[in-house]
Design brief:
Low-confidence stretches: none
Oligomer: single chain
Order of helices and strands: HHHHH
Helix content: over 70%
Radius of gyration: 22 Å
Number of domains: 2
Number of helices: 5
Distance between the termini: 64 Å
């Protein structure tokens, strides 16, 4: 078995997210499929943003009945959260794919070590710069 159980437990969830238009296709997919899937993802997002906007309008319409207001606010918050997750999945897809590759068993230790050292040296550089600026003030 060349794939680890940790990846296999997540793989079917990724397929469902892709089918719902919430997650991008693999890098290995043909360019035309990626293009068509991107159009599908954007159309699904537009649909849910439109539906969320309808819920905002409905809150004003049903403001006299507290039960309907609570139901409408629940739907509004649910779809706002869904939209936020879609945007995060799109913006952070490379990092998510890197984590999935690690779960598959493709070890990216060199990448992670490089990233860790980069952040560490950036932090040390900012610390030294702040210390230098504070010493100049005195």
């Amino acid at each position: 078995m060349d794939e680890k159980f940790s990846y296999l437990s997540v793989a079917h969830h990724i397929k469902y997210l892709q089918a719902c238009g919430q997650y991008r296709l693999d890098k290995k997919s043909p360019e035309i499929w990626k293009f068509l899937h991107t159009i599908y993802m954007r159309s699904v997002l537009i649909f849910f943003v439109f539906y969320t906007f309808q819920q905002v309008l409905k809150i004003n319409e049903v403001r006299d009945d507290i039960d309907k207001v609570m139901g409408t606010i629940f739907l509004f918050l649910t779809y706002t959260d869904w939209t936020y997750k879609c945007i995060i999945y799109w913006k952070k897809s490379e990092e998510i794919n890197d984590l999935l590759d690690v779960m598959k068993g493709i070890w990216l230790f060199i990448f992670w070590e490089f990233k860790l050292f980069f952040y560490l040296f950036t932090y040390i550089g900012k610390y030294k710069e702040c210390a230098r600026l504070l010493s100049l003030r005195e």
